[in-house]
């Protein structure tokens, strides 16, 4: 259940994301040693306040990504509106303007697939509440690469469609409540 | 097993990019891998090849594959006056400096379908600078250059363009510059009078003129760090003293090897000024 040497955590969330992430990011201590990449579905034409909001509440550093941002421990990286966020193989994060996936840019699938390519088994992917199916295919890529897949218990989710879609494609995933996810992350990081 | 499969794909991608370079001199070898991988996987699926190697074989022997692959490898997403704040800053902060020059050269690097180009030409016309300016619009994709040169867009997009233009501080109505018909809008030919369209690669080509403003937005995000450094170096060498460089809203020169050659001119809008020389 605990991966031997995780190098990163990736998180995807949509409807209900704010509340869900509030139960997770602020619970991590400043010496949390992993980077966390986060995709939340947000409208393309508005400035996002997610990074500022969580930065004020959290002990870890929280930033909105600019292209080629170096990946550092104890930092949460939010995708900016209207860009996909990808993990790159040179220890940096990249952004792209490629077409939306399942109507979403940023897309959870795009982040998860790139994390599977770069980290292989050394990544933990967490799919939270949401009302569409983004993220499910990405979880399959994570699982195939040997990474650890965690899905929020759909019964506890604000919107169950996304975690349910994840479970349909990854039936062996670890299913946890938000508190369970927070506790899990504190143990591995 | 799965592990082996993934690594084979990495090898195949490297070989395909090498093949495109050797055969056609299109150099994607230093593009950011995450995004290249995604798009080659898409191309493989949609073009119906079993493997990327099979796609490579066809690309080597069949020239008609090149434009199709380029369609996947170069991302054509733009809109007129995208990020209106950027164009407002050009208008309000950069233009007053440009006015002091008797002649101007502007380079739209990676002009794609021309949206950014026409935005700047219209802005310069509104500000009375068009007549003293030459615009260089370059891209590596011939199909994109043809679209840019035609200046014809789907009528569905015009509402967004119009809204952006207004937010950017436009002094005229966008409808003054196009005629509509058959579901398309066609931008006024005279907007092309001062434009030179040209095939130019930020990867393999060199400086071709001394520019007062270079606008290159969301092009370098597809490059790896080393290639970004090359492109920014090329821009630095192409800029006149105190010339301007505008990049995408989520791009930054912070991570560039040439960061010290530029100052932040309009920080929020990612407009930089060449210093020194």
Describe the structure.
The complex is a heterodimer of chains A (189) and B (277). Chain A contains six helices and ten strands, in the order E-H-E-H-E-E-E-E-E-H-E-H-E-H-E-H. Chain A has 189 residues and is an alpha/beta fold. In chain A, helix 3 packs parallel to helix 4 and helix 4 packs parallel to helix 5. The longest helix of chain A has 12 residues. The model of chain A has no long low-confidence stretch (mean pLDDT 95). The longest helix of chain B is centred in the N-terminal third of the chain and has 23 residues. In chain B, helix 1 packs parallel to helix 3. The mean pLDDT of chain B is 94.
List keywords for this structure.
heterodimer, A: about 190 residues, alpha/beta, Rossmann fold, three-stranded antiparallel sheet, 6 helices, about 25% strand, globular, B: about 280 residues, seven-stranded mixed sheet
The CATH topology label of chain A is Rossmann fold
CATH homologous superfamily placement of the largest domain in chain B:
Vaccinia Virus protein VP39
Any idea of the CATH class of chain A?
A: Alpha Beta
CATH domain topology of the largest domain in chain B: Rossmann fold
* SSE string of chain B, helices as H and strands as E: HHHHHEHEHEHEEEEHEEE
- State which percent range the strand residues of chain B make up: 15-25%
What Rg of chain B is obtained from the alpha carbons, in whole angstroms? 20 Å
Class from secondary-structure proportions of chain A: alpha/beta
The biggest sheet of chain A, with number of strands, parallel, antiparallel or mixed sense and barrel status, is: 7 strands, parallel
Q: How many E-type strands of chain B?
A: 10
State the end-to-end CA separation of chain A.
14 Å
Total helix count of chain B? Answer: 9
The radius of gyration over CA of chain A amounts to 14 Å
Which regions of chain B contain 5 or more consecutive residues with pLDDT less than 50? none
CATH class membership of the largest domain in chain B:
Alpha Beta
CATH superfamily of chain A: Methylesterase CheB, C-terminal domain
Which percent band covers the strand fraction of chain A? 15-25%
Shape of chain A: globular
Question: Strand order, biggest sheet of chain B?
Answer: 6-2-1-7-8-10-9
What's the architecture of the largest domain in chain B in CATH terms?
A: 3-Layer(aba) Sandwich
Catalytic activity (chain A): [protein]-L-glutamate 5-O-methyl ester + H2O = L-glutamyl-[protein] + methanol + H(+)
InterPro entries (chain A): CheB_C, Sig_transdc_resp-reg_Me-estase
Keywords (chain A): Chemotaxis, Hydrolase
Pfam families (chain A): CheB_methylest
């Amino acid at each position: 259940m605990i991966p031997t040497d995780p190098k990163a955590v990736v998180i995807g969330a949509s409807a209900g994301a704010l509340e869900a992430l509030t139960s997770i990011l602020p619970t991590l201590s400043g010496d949390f040693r992993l980077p966390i990449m986060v995709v939340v579905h947000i409208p393309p034409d508005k400035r996002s306040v997610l990074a500022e909001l969580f930065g004020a509440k959290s002990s870890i550093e929280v930033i909105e990504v600019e292209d080629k941002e170096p990946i550092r421990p104890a930092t949460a990286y939010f995708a900016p509106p209207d860009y996909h966020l990808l993990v790159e193989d040179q220890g940096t994060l990249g952004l792209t303007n490629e077409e939306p996936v399942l109507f979403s840019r940023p897309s959870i699938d795009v982040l998860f697939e790139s994390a599977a390519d770069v980290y292989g088994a050394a990544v933990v992917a967490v799919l939270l509440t949401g009302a569409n199916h983004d993220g499910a295919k990405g979880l399959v890529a994570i699982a195939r690469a040997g990474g650890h897949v965690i899905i929020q218990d759909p019964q506890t989710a604000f919107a169950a469609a996304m975690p349910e879609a994840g479970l349909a494609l990854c039936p062996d995933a670890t299913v946890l409540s938000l508190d369970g996810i927070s506790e899990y992350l504190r143990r591995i990081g | 097993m799965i592990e082996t499969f993934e690594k084979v794909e990495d090898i195949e991608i490297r070989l395909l990019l090498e093949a495109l370079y050797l055969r056609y001199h299109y150099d994607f070898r230093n593009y950011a891998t995450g995004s290249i991988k995604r798009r080659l996987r898409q191309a493989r699926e949609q073009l119906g090849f079993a493997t990327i190697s099979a796609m490579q074989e066809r690309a080597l022997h069949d020239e008609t594959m090149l434009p199709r692959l380029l369609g996947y490898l170069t991302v054509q997403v733009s809109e007129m006056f995208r990020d209106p704040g950027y164009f407002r800053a050009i208008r309000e902060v950069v233009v007053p400096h440009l006015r002091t020059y008797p002649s101007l050269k502007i380079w739209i690097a990676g002009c794609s379908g021309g949206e950014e180009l026409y935005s700047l030409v219209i802005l310069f016309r509104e500000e009375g600078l068009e007549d003293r300016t030459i615009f260089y619009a370059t891209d590596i994709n011939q199909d994109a250059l043809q679209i840019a040169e035609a200046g014809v867009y789907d009528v569905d997009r015009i509402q967004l363009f119009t809204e952006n233009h207004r937010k950017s501080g436009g002094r005229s109505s966008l409808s003054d510059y196009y005629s509509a018909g058959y579901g398309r809008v066609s931008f006024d030919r005279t907007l092309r009078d001062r434009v030179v369209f040209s095939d130019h690669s930020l990867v393999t080509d060199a400086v071709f003129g001394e520019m007062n403003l270079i606008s290159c937005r969301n092009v370098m995000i597809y490059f790896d760090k080393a290639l970004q450094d090359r492109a920014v170096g090329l821009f630095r060498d192409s800029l006149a003293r105190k010339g301007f460089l505008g990049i995408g809203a989520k791009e930054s020169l912070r991570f560039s090897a040439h960061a010290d050659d530029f100052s932040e001119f309009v920080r929020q809008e990612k407009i930089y000024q060449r210093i020194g020389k």
